[in-house]
Amino acid sequence: MALPWLNDQLAALKPKAIDDFSRTTITGAQHALADVANPLRLNFFSTAMRILFEHMMGTLAPVDQVVQTEWFVSEREGNAPTRGQRIVFAIQGGLSDEFVKDTLQIDIAPIRQRLIKAVDNLSKHVHGREDTIIEGHDEQDAAASGAIEALGNFLDTYHECRSTILNAIQQELDDAAVDTLLSDTILEVDELATHHSVEEVYVGDTSVRSIGAHFITYRATGSVAIGLQWGSNSDLRRGDGAEADLSFPFYCDIQVSLDDPLNMAFSATNYSVDVSSWRDGMGPDDDDL
Fold this sequence. Notes:
Layout: H1 4-11, H2 20-34, H3 41-60, H4 63-66, H5 83-92, H6 97-103, H7 109-126, H8 137-183, H9 187-190, E1 195-211, E2 215-230, H10 233-238, E3 242-257, E4 268-273, H11 276-281
Antiparallel strand pairs: 1-2, 2-3, 3-4
């Protein structure tokens, strides 16, 4: 088995991972480290970690998005972004360096440098040669630990950037979601009954869904309490109508320009209310089939 501290260090990456595939690659790296009898143990570990890095860059820093940012300056032929530029975009998107450093108080430069060095080392072991294979367990563990630490620092900074922005605009996001659901006709609900009214909107969670080249998109999720009425008020008085109070989950995406990412004045919203629980409940009973 791999040294417990090294396995624990690698396992600590999983809660920070961006998706299920990232966690799969981390599991693969754990299995590689556990095979201490394999002289190519570090090479197989490096392959798994390199797959993890490339997947994160492909997901978080698409080339076509990186080159659209205000801060992008071509540094190589073909206008392709460098690895360092993609790492920066994965963390801050199109946010300006000044905003990230001065407002968010996050210094990306050392994180970028350490991760570039770690990925270069991973590549060396992925493309192993007779004179580059490291077989000593202590040396293997030290190399693996350095790569894990660099990727962990990157993921920590990725999450820190988003949580810091979120903390600064939390109440405004809650208010924007509530105002949107209270002021708009909710089409999904409007189809269920003759009349409906929004009684209460509860925002349970907010997150940064994405930071692109030009916009940051926040997401608010929660539940909306709805009063449904079938028939007119006269129908209700005659006993021919019906009423029900129900609650449905919703999400609301709020898009804000990166020119002023904490200013909700010109935000655009898009929302959806999930009424599937009502529609499923209205389906035919088994006895009717």
